[in-house]
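Pipeline run #58 for the internal structure catalog. This entry was flagged by the ingest filter as a single-chain record with no existing model, so it goes straight to prediction. Upstream metadata was stripped on purpose; only the residue string is passed forward. Reviewer on rotation: M.T. Logging verbosity set to normal.
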Amino acid sequence: NHIAESSYDEWMVQERLRPHPALAELSGLPLIQTVRIVTYVTRNGEIEIPFAWLRIVGSPKGVDNFSFGRNGNLVATLDAQTGVIQHVLGGDSAGFGLELVTEHPLSGMKFAGFSIPEFAAACSTAKRAAAAFSPLRTIGWDVAITDQGISLIEGNVTWDPLPTCSDLARVIHAFN
């Protein structure tokens, strides 16, 4: 009925994705939280994953966009080899800047040591996508880890945000 009564001429209907149970438990919300997996194709054609972040929903608004914490969402820097959370940032309480967050504000789950489920499969999917998009050498892939497996959402040639200065320093050293 909504589509029939709308003034739009065209619609795109997509299957709704549901989060992996471990990610839903982490946030306390039944919403998709994507992993940004950065792929880098070396000069000899090997595909590496130098960086990965998890965008964590912090409110029931329905999107995982970090927006530098202004919307209550968080961003976790992951160990790019294991998918284990290294640290999490959110908007600071004064509304200016970022601060470290140790547990989810809604679920109360502690972030330290949390391992992203099916991370190896998500990385494998991102590497296959990177190979298909040659000659682009670096892409930030948004990958949803769902209750039905891995779903590639999109690729970004500009793959910000870089949550911390230490992450930025790693980027500078990785590509020099």
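catalog note: The radius of gyration is 17 Å.
catalog note: The longest strand covers residues 47-56.
status: ready for reviewer M.T.
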